[in-house]
Specification:
Strand content: 5-15%
Shape: globular
Order of helices and strands: HEEEEHHEEHEHEHEHEHHHHHHHEE
Oligomer: single chain
Structural class: alpha/beta
Number of helices: 14
Largest sheet: 8 strands, mixed
Radius of gyration: 21 Å
């Protein structure tokens, strides 16, 4: 992923449809301290939270507080977007919330200190203006904590727009910002004060999971922008990452037991049964799991989702419960698939889920039904990714009152190649 022109047509069209204009007159906060004396906070748009915290809803502009002294491995992710690869986060929390990298910088004296608490938003689907109230409230808390600057990290396509909005409101409140852009054209159009564009896939804002040295290079480049005088600045990170990897030589078998396969329930139950040993291995090896958003077990989720598939005239699952259930199913399959030895290129786990599993086919059935009904259509985009359905998921965003706002694509170009600046 390098430019919009390198993306599939449906992804490019979706991103170009987004309204991406500056949110108002330029506002820039220039830090008065050297980096070695500054107090920094992390802000993620990945929908991160503690297991006991409220899960992010489908359209949710509120934030979650992440204690600065806690083990980030326990964080959950309940982001509404299906359009980024979660496998990187599952392997290495620091890829999207680099708390360990920041602690290392603090220990080395390269930054002054870290905030007492950090913050996470869910960056999918919402217009950037919707975040204004909660960001201004967050700015008040950051000032109380003595924070000088915030480092903002997105994960999904819309997150880059949300990150630009968060940066704008923080700067207007006297908090300097820097961060990562995953879609250069959107950042160019919105003109946040400082952003570092990286050419990495969605879900991988700092490069490869587990590569602390490389993550430090990206972070250092973004932090260096804090003392740029000529703003706005959008710098291009000069290094790419070779994510090329062969598929595992001993891929998880998805062949089904020789049992009843005449119903969705039977096929899904059989498949989940085969995935469980791999999921258990993954959870034991990493000591954590993202499964647990929903109040039901994987078996209960399977039964309830299969019930409608086997009887489409029956009632659909409750939509809030359905969102949580989908999060758990996707996490369960992803964690099971990454349990095997070898490296996986970004997108491999997701492609496998959507193209080779019964549950991927089941969620596509749900997506097709929702997408065909006007009242359910807005929810369809949370079910399957654009890559999974090979098409756009709608030219709308969610406004301040929860209304659907049709996007006109203002403030962007035709998605063609740009020269590196």
């Amino acid at each position: 992923m390098v430019r919009l022109s390198d993306l599939p047509e449906w992804e490019r069209a979706h991103l170009l449809a987004k309204d991406a204009l500056p949110l108002g007159p330029a506002v820039h906060t220039h830090p008065s301290k050297p980096l070695q004396e500054m107090r920094l906070a992390l802000i993620s748009t990945a929908g991160l939270h503690e297991r006991a915290d409220a899960v992010f809803e489908l359209s949710d502009s509120t934030y979650r507080v992440i204690d600065g002294d806690k083990n980030a491995d326990a964080l959950m992710l309940s982001h509404s977007s299906s359009n980024f690869d979660r496998a990187g986060f599952q392997e290495d929390v620091n890829l999207v919330f680099p708390i360990d990298r920041m602690r290392e910088l603090e220990a080395q004296g390269k930054i002054g200190s870290l905030a007492s608490v950090h913050f996470s938003f869910m960056g999918a689907g919402l217009l950037p203006q919707v975040y204004e109230k909660t960001v201004r409230d967050m700015a008040r808390l950051l000032r109380q904590d003595g924070v000088d600057a915030a480092f903002i990290l997105p994960v999904c396509p819309n997150c880059t727009r949300a990150s630009a909005g968060i940066a704008y409101y923080l700067e207007s409140e006297g908090i300097a910002t820097t961060g990562i852009s995953l879609v250069r054209e959107i950042t160019e159009a919105m003109q946040p004060p400082r952003m570092l564009w990286t050419s990495f896939p969605f879900g991988y804002p700092l490069g490869k999971p587990g590569d602390a040295a490389f993550q430090h290079q990206v972070i250092d480049a973004a932090l260096a922008l804090l003392h740029c005088e000529d703003l706005p600045v959008l710098a291009d990170f000069p290094l790419d990452v070779d994510f090329t990897a062969d598929a595992p030589s001993c891929a998880i078998t998805l062949s089904r037991p020789e049992t009843d396969t005449s119903s969705w329930r039977a096929r899904l139950k059989n498949e989940v049964l085969l995935m469980k040993p791999w999921y258990d291995r993954s959870r034991n090896r990493r000591g954590r799991t993202m499964v647990g958003i929903c109040d039901a077990s994987i078996d209960e989720i399977t039964d309830r989702l299969a019930a409608w598939l086997d009887a489409p005239d029956s009632d659909l699952p409750d939509l809030v419960w359905f969102k949580y259930a989908m999060e758990d199913i996707k996490a369960f399959y992803s964690e099971a698939m990454i349990a095997e030895p070898g490296e996986y290129p970004p997108g491999y786990i997701s492609a496998r889920f959507w193209n080779e599993t019964e549950f991927g086919a089941a969620l596509k059935q749900y997506h097709a039904y929702f997408d065909a009904h006007e009242k359910l259509k807005p929810f369809a985009r949370a079910i399957a990714s654009r890559d999974a359905v090979q098409g756009s998921t709608g030219d709308f965003a969610i406004g301040a009152q929860g209304e659907m706002v049709v996007q006109s694509g203002r403030g962007q170009d035709d998605g063609g190649a740009h020269s590196d600046e």
